[in-house]
Structures are given as structure tokens and as C-alpha cells.
Write a structure and sequence with these properties.
single chain, alpha/beta, Rossmann fold, 3-stranded antiparallel beta sheet, 7 helices, 12 strands
């Protein structure tokens, strides 16, 4: 789903489509190829589902992808996405063909040295290179803050991860959880977020008994984008977006 070059002030920026027509329109063609992106939001906003949808849509087009799980088992993740998208009958076929590699890289113990951090990151890179992935999803980063001594170390870890993914020339889509309360738009635990080229913010709007997922682009380096908030719906066929009512 690699779209053509984008001009108009952003010369020769190749794009990777997201598989969601409205989101591609907002991004003027998709995510910049080789960019490092994060989807942030509170629990239940659809971060993992959105990230997986982007990988799945590209894998269907013959673009190898990897989903790396930090905080859950592979079997549980597959059950969750199949439950969310019951019409994705080709998922197991894509897995069998190694077009979408779903792997675990769990983090259980405290990182006490740089060597331990780099060993963990090496596992991420190894998974991404196992099928020559062009797109890498990492779900999700929040647990790493609890395994590092302070915010400075967490920021350093994020820099190491994004830089190593940049070196192997993949487009990454990572997820990170915001606190359940409040309306924070900053990622907790980070001194700054410059290591991410793109920041996508998900939220839930509650209207009586109904809850609506909302998606907005906070930042997208190397590309222009539309500053809009869009309703996001998870359907049996995948994620769709439309303008807010």
C-alpha cells in the first residue's frame, strides 16, 4: 500500500497507506515511509486494533509486516483481533505465508544496564527482520516505564527503539497508554516526544449510553495533514472513520 511521492512542499515523500480511506485522506496518502509513529490513548480507545488494522491491510497487499507484543501472549492477541474483526478470514493464511509475523518480546524484569536494554531492542529488530518487514507494530510501550528506573531512562529507551527501527528502514506504529483519568495529550514518563515522527491521539466521547471512538493527528513530521477529529468505528470488516457529527 505504498503510495506515490507527495510534493507540494514535502518533496518526494513516499507514503504507506493505512487501509482506512478517511485516515489516508487526512494524511494526504498515508504514513510517511520510514517514519516512527505512536498511537496514544486511554484504555479502550482502540489503539491496538487500529495499529493491527494498518499492518493487516498492508500484509493483504503483499507488504510484509510484524506485530511485536510486549505485554500479552500471541494466542490471546490473535483471539482478540479475530473477535474484533470476525470477517478477517485470511489472517491465518497471511500468518502461514509469513506476510504478517506476530511475535512475543515480553519484558518481565527491571532493566538495570544499557546492555539489558539493547538486548531487549535486539529482539525487536530480530523479529522485524525475520520476514523483511516494511511495517512494524509494537504493542504496547507503557509497561516499559515500570521496568526502568526513571523518566530519563524511559526516554532513552524510546530513543534507542526508534533509532534502531529507523536504521533498518521500517515504518513503525507503536501504541502507548495514557492514564484513565484526565485529558492528557503528553505521553507520561517522557521528557519529550521528538523521537516519534507521528503522534496519533485516540479518545472516547461518551454521550449517554453510547461511546464513540475519536481519532486525531497531533503531529506528522515530513507530511502535511488535516487537523480534524474523526469518528472511528470498529466493524467486523475492520476499522472505518468518518467526520464527527
Amino acid at each position: 500500500m505504498m503510495n506515490g511521492m507527495q510534493l507540494d512542499g514535502y518533496a518526494q515523500v513516499k507514503k504507506i497507506g493505512t487501509g482506512i480511506s478517511t485516515l489516508d485522506d487526512i494524511l494526504y496518502g498515508g504514513l510517511p515511509e520510514g517514519s516512527q509513529n505512536v498511537i496514544m490513548g486511554q484504555p479502550g480507545t482502540g489503539k491496538s486494533i487500529l495499529a493491527f488494522h494498518m499492518a493487516y491491510a498492508n500484509a493483504k497487499l503483499g507488504i510484509p509486516c510484524t506485530v511485536i507484543l510486549i505485554d500479552q501472549r500471541r494466542e490471546d492477541f490473535i483471539k482478540n483481533v479475530v473477535s474484533a474483526f470476525p470477517h478477517l478470514e485470511s489472517l491465518h493464511d497471511l500468518i502461514d505465508k509469513n506476510m504478517i509475523n506476530i511475535s512475543e518480546n515480553p519484558a518481565y524484569d527491571k532493566f538495570t544496564t544499557k546492555e539489558e536494554m539493547m538486548t531487549f531492542i535486539a529482539g525487536i529488530i530480530k523479529s522485524a527482520q525475520s520476514n523483511n518487514s516494511k511495517i512494524v507494530v509494537i504493542d504496547e510501550l507503557s509497561i516499559l516505564r515500570a521496568l526502568l528506573s526513571d523518566d530519563r531512562e524511559f526516554t532513552r529507551m524510546m530513543n534507542y527503539i526508534t533509532e534502531n527501527l529507523h536504521l533498518i528502514n521500517v515504518t513503525s506504529i507503536m501504541t502507548i497508554e495514557l492514564p484513565s483519568s484526565g485529558t492528557r495529550t503528553k505521553i507520561p514518563g517522557l521528557f519529550e516526544e521528538s523521537m516519534f515522527d507521528g503522534v496519533i491521539r485516540l479518545a472516547n466521547l461518551v454521550d449517554g449510553d453510547e461511546t464513540e471512538h475519536v481519532c486525531a493527528i497531533v503531529r506528522m513530521r515530513f507530511s502535511k495533514f488535516k487537523s480534524t477529529s474523526n469518528a472511528m468505528k470498529i466493524t467486523p470488516d475492520g476499522v472505518i472513520m468518518s467526520p464527527l457529527k
